[in-house]
Amino acid sequence: MWTVCVPGWGAMMVAGTLLLYGTLDVAYFARMMYTVAKARYFRKKICILDTTEVQSWCLLTDIDTLLYHMNNARYLRELDFARADYYERSGLYANIKAAGGSVLQAATTIRYRRYLKPFTKFTITSKAIFWDEKTFFMEHEFIGPGGFVHAVALCRQRIIDTSVAAIAELLLQLHCSGSCKSPPEKMPSELELWVQSNELSSAKLRPTAPALPSLEPHPLSCGEIIPKVE
Predict the structure, then answer these.
(1) DSSP of 161-200, one letter per residue?
(2) What is the end-to-end Cα distance of the chain in Å, rounded?
(3) Would you give the DSSP letter of residue 2?
(4) pLDDT tens digits, residue range 79-126?
(5) Rounded to two decimals, what is the model's pTM?
(6) Strand, helix or coil for residue 6
């Protein structure tokens, strides 16, 4: 019978490693630190109106139990790295922190168009599509081989204890100097409808929620639906 002798320190290292990987998503935090460091020191700074790109792969750790496409939850995980790259390169996060503020993810919606197969390389694009005093909206696309958009996500970040509109204006003056396109003055129609949906959901979950407004078509120029209170 074979006997394996493991020194005490070796057994402690093995046990510590198993405990670490069992209680902490080591790969996530390691990749996040790499993404932030790369964006901060090695990638070009951008205007907040620019579209950023990050590259990634669908690996075996990303697939679902059917073993032939990326798990739906992994798309949202990948967005963390795309947003970190955008926030770092645009200077948005640093200025929010300098102003005493913080960022919270308030809502996300994603539409899957075609699955990503294992060992497929894809690109995530990120761009700002609207902001106000307390909210910053971004759109992300998962682009696979041939330029096909596999998924589209909308994200709503809530900015706490500072004005993101004032910070965005400052960044536009510092980094763009009028050379960029004009900042968005109005919500895109699909974003406006999504925000309305979020507000209806919030109203329903409040303990003393009033009667929910019903939605009916209204002939507005952008084709949105407005709430009507009975």
Answers:
(1) SS-HHHHHHHHIIIIITT-SPPPP-S--HHHHHHHHHHHH
(2) 81
(3) -
(4) 999 999 999 999 999 999 999 999 999 999 999 999 999 999 999 999
(5) 0.82
(6) coil
